[in-house]
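Co-fold these.
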Amino acid sequence: MSEKQPENPEISKIKDFMKDERFDDVVNIIALYLGDATDEDYLDRLEDVIETLMLLHGGRTVLRFLIERLIIDIPSLLENLSKRDSVLRYSFLLLLKSMCENEWDLFLPYSEDLLNSDDPNVREADLQLLIFIAGGEMNIEDESLIRAITEKLNDEKDFVVKKAIQALSAIGMDKPSLVTRVITNYVKEFPEDSILKDYADKILKSIVSVEGIEEIVEEEEEKEDVEGEEAEIIDKELELKKKKIEIQKKKMELEEKEKELEEQYIQEKERALKLKEDKIDTEVQKPSKREELPKKVKKKIKKEESDILDKEIELKKKDLEIKKKKIELELREKELEEKAIEKKEEALKIKEELIEKENELSRVELELKQKKIKEKEKKLLEEELDRADEYFNKEEGKK
Amino acid sequence: MPLTPEHIDKFITSESDSKTKSELLELLNNRIKKLCFEECERDRILCTLSPMCSKRFLLKLRLLNGLSIEDQPKFCYSVHKNIIQRDFRNKTVIYKPFDTYLYLIDFLDVFFHGDYRKLNKFLSKGDTDQAIEIFEDRIKNRDEDFQYFLTTDKNYLIFKFDDRIHILFLKEKYALCNANRENIVNLEIIKGLSDLFSSLYFPEIERILIPDNHVELKTYIPRDVINKISQEPPEDDENKRDQYFWNTFANDLDALSQFCKEINLYINKKGNLKIELHLDTSNSIRYRDLRLVFNIIFRLYNEFYIIWV
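Predicted complex below.
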């Protein structure tokens, strides 16, 4: 007393191939099956495929292939599922769970866009996929994505808000400080929104455990440390700059002192020389205590002293001469350089003049050529006129 | 030993203080409210795929007590409806929606989508003739394969889609879908089901409603068949008749006796074996039990009566 409906032949084929684990063939059949669909029956076919895959061993493998080969793409899949009942939608989302956990790169690139979908079911499904991803090995660290999820706390649909709370709680388990920061920043933008604050409280309470608090505190401490270190570095830099300036000052002072000392030294030497000269003069004029020494010895000492002084003076003179020569050489070099520059400028001027002259010549040549052409044209015209006259004259003569 | 549900059950039945009882029941009511409207619907995936009450029986609790759809957890009810719809369309479901209840309009939406507003209007007003016109049109002109039966007092409409039975409670404005383990609540439904199955599988079986008492189903095994039954246990396995009467008939009668108020067997004037079954609701007969009764009748009718005729 009962009847059964026959099964779709394509689905039967898929089932048979799945039994033999011919996954590539299954993928090809599904691609053709969906490819042949019209706009009207595409959803029915997609639902048939999804239902079949959900029930069969190896269905997830085939589904992964279908997604990888873009036969089914995630955004349009979620949009299509939204048009179907919740049982199919959620069952299928569950089918994607392990794929989200292990191959998040298939889903994450679409996540942020899908969060802004017009369809609340799509937004909810996307958040569910993010929950699955966060439950896997992947730590979601993308601040803009977390921010986009946080914005869903203000979604018009209550079920999307609930899913966003779950998603943030799931992500926050691994990244409590990041999620805490993003949420608190977002809540600060709406200081009068008490409902949003409640949601934020709920998430933060679910995120924060003893370990979580430690992590947040550690991160904050690290931040403070980093900030302190940065300040220290800046202070040190300033100190270094100050020290450099001081060193430069000291160098300058030292140089000045050296100069002063040199000047003093020169002055002292000059004084000493003068004193010696005076002494020599006075010694010549007045007999000194040395007179008491034997005359020969005195003479020798005098000679020697005068020789030394002479030599010193000569050396100084030579030094001065060398300095003068150096200065002269430098001046000459400068003069030569100036002369070279002047010569170059002159050469350039000459070149410019030559170019101008060449241009003028070419113009003149052109004018000459044009004149010649005109003269030739004139001659030709005249010759032709002459010929014409002759012809007419002959014709008149004949008449 | 901690408190168990059995203790509570015993307490409610034995406690004489109504205030205490109502306090306890209020606690239970609050718990149900929280479970349905806060905990279960918090996550729609969980609510869809693993609801917190088995097969969403708390929806049934509200519906059978006359609460409107506004009093139901909306998402849960929508999933419930979806599951019935998916099962009707042979799609995979998380659980088979046997003995599930829908509000009248939702039942009509699932099973007669294109005409559900019209049908709801007609059936709500009690205009069954207009509704039947639509059913007939769908069967004759739109290749839809279902059978229906309006009970004698026009309180129930019975539908049969393949092997699934759905009962429309017209006064209460709800429907029992995929009736199976639910108790049949009155004789009008037993009579209606008997008439529907009789029209399809055993048209010559007599069916009489004795109001407020029972429904009589009368069939007989012709004299010729009775006379041909061997006097000794059958040695030939291929003789179906002997095999049945010697080996199975007694078991069938035993099974029938579990669901029938009374079974009368007698040889009438023509020498035929009359089998008279009295069915009522006192035995808490379920839809599946009635199906079993019909199966036995169908076998007797199909293998012995119709061949003889």
